[in-house]
Amino acid sequence: MSYHPLSIANYFIYKGGEDNVDVDHLKLQKLVYIAHGWCLAITGEPLISEAVRAWQYGPVITSLWREFKDYGSREIRSPARPEVFEAPSRKDARSRDILRTVWEKYGSLSGVQLSNLTHQAGTPWWSARKRGLSSNPKIRDKEIRLHFLELARQGQ
Length: 156
Known about the structure:
By secondary structure, this protein is mostly helical. It has seven helices and three strands, in the order ααββααααβα. It has helices spanning 5-19, 25-43, 62-68, 93-106, 111-118, 124-131, 141-153, and strands spanning 52-55, 58-60, 138-139. Helix 1 packs across helix 2 (25-43), helix 2 crosses helix 4 (93-106) and helix 2 (25-43) crosses helix 7.
């Protein structure tokens, strides 16, 4: 089951508040992207219902950018319209487990550290930028899935 990206973003914003960990816009973009990648690798299904774009400075989910752009590099303390967007329910334990695992593994990293992980040569972002079909090309879910499967194979 796929979710609106703001639902997944809200999960990480709430977790940041619970764990007293700053979540800024850059970090949020990367956490949602990484969670989507691991979901694709583990389940073969997308976590989010929106394409990831290869912007100049990394993978970006446009609805997140629109919602949180005014925060700049400041910590995001308020979720996106929480009454509209809900995180995976108890019925979707697999997605909740993926989100929890992503937070445990990557939540303590800064946005810059996460960005460094997603900007390496050979990553889906790099491949999409290299294709150069548009200024902000779509990063194909198939490429994201293969990348995260390779990370799993390497034990990362």
